[in-house]
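Narrative of activities, Objective 1.

The group set out to show that a structural description can be obtained from nothing but a protein's sequence at a throughput compatible with the screening campaign. Below is one input-output pair from the validation batch, recorded exactly as produced.
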Amino acid sequence: MLSLYGLSAWIEVEGRELEQYGVEEDYDQNQVTCWIATQADKNFSVVFRDNEAYREHSLGSSLRLDGSSINGKHLRLPTRIGCFPNFAGDRTVVQNGQTLSATSLRPFVFSKLELTDEDEYLNQSSAHLGEIRISIYRVEPVDSSLFPPGASVSGHGKVHERSKKAVTHCVSYGQEVKTETNYVCRVRYLDGETPLATFIFKYRDSGLLQANGIIPKPPPVKKEAVVFEEVIDLTTGEDVKREPTSEEIEIVDNKKRPNPSRESQTRPAKRIKREKKFVHTGEVIDLT
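Output recorded for this entry:
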């Protein structure tokens, strides 16, 4: 996760925090920047957490996806020190979509960028395409009410193929889903437009990040060495004679020695064939 001035932020996909690469801190601008690897057609959440033991003010977030502003979240002021049994857990805010009404939202989704060669889209893409930016402010709540109906959101839309700047993914929105009751809170910013901290996540396909040396490439698969067995003939060019052993002589003798019982069983019986000779005179002579 990224951390600055007692605040932390990260991106989650399927409940798992995405690893950050190339983290850069800019204390003059109160911001931290990093790269994350993304996959298309994956829902994601933007998460921030207050790590301070106690604050004298509430916190409010402002979210920008691909340069478009999205309603943020309000983190209430604790009433006293130690009021939460699990302070870190209760001071974590998860935003997984854009609220549409008091009972619905459309989830955040990483999607493939739609390219076009139509000239009307040339120079129309945002300079912040491929970027998730969350800023945390000190705020004072003014009032709250049920989220009004009628809100709508749309994705980034088409991008001209000559202006995509090595970006292949963008943020879009999934189908509308039902939620628990949503409220909207109006707040007053205590420090004007200056946030306590800003966290910037530049997201790209993992292949692009590897090609640019931002994330390490997977180690090569080691191939097992093939062992060739060479048979060496240690004999000379002359024939080598070896005297047979007593066991080998006995085996040969047994093979040569006749087996009477076997011969009696296998020898076929003689059959006497009677032949008759025909003489032209018509007389039959018995030759037996």
